[in-house]
Amino acid sequence: MGWIGDTVDSIKSIQIRQLLTQAVSLGMIVTSALIIWKALMCITGSESPVVVVLSGSMEPGFKRGDILFLHMSKDPIRAGEIVVFNVDGREIPIVHRVIKVHERQDTGEVDVLTKGDNNYGDDRLLYAQGQQWLHQHHIMGRAVGFLPYVGWVTIIMTEKPIIKNEADLYRMKVSEIPCRSQP
């Protein structure tokens, strides 16, 4: 019985070690992803350096599920550029093309009007009530590259309730980590 008991104890300790090794490995993967995300935020100057196209409003150029890489450049925004913006009162950012740029002579600030490539009219109906133009603080970044279809993982996670709750918990933890703003 002593030999069997020792063998069982040995197997239990190996299983515990393997479990701890896997937990540490998973923790390192999650931490690495978090560090990469925060580094991208600081490098690109965008609060969200990677976004997923969630609708067909930018087809045929970008399809639902494409991932866009963003950069917040100091250069003036030009008509034809693709920007990602937040509208007051809306939770989800929008990816659309700039169709008009209006520079105010008195302040030099730039206002922009956007439109989805696959939409009939401009985005004024999407803006906050009474808002005619987007201002600089609405713009999250400009699209500088894309990866087709990879964003479907995110779409599936947000559409499946069980997976969505876990993803929301992770996002809350990520958003609490500060990033020093660029000069």
UniProtKB/TrEMBL annotation:
The protein's role, per its UniProt record: Catalytic component of the signal peptidase complex (SPC) which catalyzes the cleavage of N-terminal signal sequences from nascent proteins as they are translocated into the lumen of the endoplasmic reticulum. Specifically cleaves N-terminal signal peptides that contain a hydrophobic alpha-helix (h-region) shorter than 18-20 amino acids.
GO BP terms, alphabetized: signal peptide processing
Membership in a protein family: Belongs to the peptidase S26B family.
Main location: endoplasmic reticulum
CC annotations in GO: signal peptidase complex
Membrane topology value: Single-pass type II membrane protein
UniProt keyword Hydrolase, yes or no: yes
Enzyme class: hydrolase
Superkingdom of the source species: Eukaryota
One Pfam family here: Peptidase_S24
Enzyme Commission designation: 3.4.21.89
Molecular function GO labels: serine-type endopeptidase activity; signal peptidase activity
Protein name, per record: Signal peptidase complex catalytic subunit SEC11
Localization terms from the record: Endoplasmic reticulum membrane
InterPro entries with a match to the protein in the record: LexA/Signal_pep-like_sf, Peptidase_S24_S26A/B/C, Peptidase_S26, Peptidase_S26B
Source organism (scientific name): Gossypium australe
Catalyses which reaction(s): Cleavage of hydrophobic, N-terminal signal or leader sequences from secreted and periplasmic proteins
Transmembrane portions of the chain: 19-40
